[in-house]
Automatic annotation (TrEMBL):
InterPro entries: BUG, Bug_dom1. Transmembrane segments: none annotated. It holds the Pfam family TctC. Belongs to the UPF0065 (bug) family. This is Tripartite tricarboxylate transporter substrate-binding protein. Residues 1-25 form the signal peptide. Keywords: Signal. It comes from Rhizobium puerariae. It comes from the Bacteria.
């Protein structure tokens, strides 16, 4: 009888807590939401997150506050969200690194495909191959010659193993069959500061961090990784035009929540994302930074899930061929 009572008690308690979770979710969001960016403030992922978070906040009626948790190529921040309370008040804005780190790290503090709920895709940003302003090479051919001739001293900045800058740098090095010296940062915001000061030689980074610098002539730019030239950087050849088609890559960004986050919360976040991506300010700022908002059909949990799965499969053999692992 005692056992019976205990079982009934436990079942009632579970039902009650389920009820109160969905009752909470119905009124969601009732307070501020934290959006974790797994890289430093002032970098390209941070820029995208802040623009989108502001526009989503308007739709949700609650503020989304961006928190930067940089380190270990984005895996620290992703791990933070994987282990956060699944209540809809902690989300993650990450990029392609979510897929590449699944292969680059043989051990992660989370199971990439099973630790998250999906909100939707945000934007697909091209990368640009840059060098310090005083780099003598005039074009990509010249940069390759310089890199090959000075391979023991040429430094390539990145945001750690698993970052987009790491992937792009890895594609550059494997395309020219020349390993160079890599210098990791917690994000390409601080890496850009060092590139501007000529403390590092080369960097690959999203246009959301590089367009203004390229336009202002504070860095040398050699190519863009998109299939077509960009309106905002008309003179910059594509990697295909410049002779390294293997470097073509798009840095897709997505929003995630911890596994088990109530569906009502995910639905509201996903709707707010769609609204944010139609915000004229987001659209205009993205255009200035060489990118555009994802279409409605992509700002969905299903589209992000499919993208992540497809990209893990796509990059696995490339990373394995390069033989680069974080551990
Ligand atoms: N652009 C960085 C990367 O390489 C991250 C950042 O700082 O936003 O992934």
């Amino acid at each position: 009888m005692k056992i019976m009572n205990a079982v009934i008690g436990a079942t009632a308690l579970a039902a009650l807590s389920l009820f109160s979770a969905s009752a909470h979710a119905a009124g969601y969001p009732e307070r501020q939401i934290t959006m974790i960016v797994p890289f430093s403030a002032g970098g390209p992922t941070d820029t995208v997150a802040r623009l989108v978070a502001e526009a989503m906040s308007k739709d949700l009626g609650q503020q989304i506050v961006v928190e930067n948790v940089g380190g270990a190529g984005g895996t620290l921040g992703a791990g933070r969200v994987a282990n956060a309370e699944a209540d809809g008040y902690t989300v993650l804005l990450h990029h392609i690194g979510m897929a590449t780190s699944a292969t680059l790290y043989r051990k992660l503090p989370y199971d990439t495909l099973n630790a998250f709920e999906y909100v939707g895709l945000v934007t697909d940003v091209p990368m640009t191959l840059l060098a310090r302003k005083d780099m003598e090479a005039k074009d990509l051919k010249g940069l390759i010659e310089y890199a090959k001739a000075n391979k023991d001293k040429v430094t390539v900045a990145n945001a750690g193993i698993g970052a987009a800058s790491h992937l792009c740098g890895m594609l550059f090095m494997s395309s020219i069959e020349t390993p160079l010296v890599t210098v990791p940062y917690k994000g390409t915001g601080p890496a850009m500061t060092d590139l501007l000061g000529s403390q590092v030689d080369i960097m690959c980074d999203q246009t959301t961090n590089t367009t203004k610098q390229i336009q202002g002539g504070t860095v040398k730019a050699y190519a863009v990784t998109s299939p077509e030239r960009l309106d905002v950087l008309k003179d910059l050849p594509t990697v295909k035009e410049a002779g390294l088609p293997q470097m073509e890559v798009g840095i897709w960004h997505g929003i995630y929540a911890p596994k088990g986050t109530p569906k009502e919360a995910i639905d509201k976040l996903s709707k707010a994302l769609k609204v944010a991506l139609k915000d004229p300010n987001v659209d205009a700022r993205f255009a200035e930074l060489g990118t555009k908002p994802s279409p409605d059909a992509d700002a969905t949990p299903e589209a992000l899930k499919a993208k992540l799965e497809g990209e893990i499969t796509r990059w696995k053999p490339v990373i394995e061929a390069a033989g680069q692992y974080a551990d």
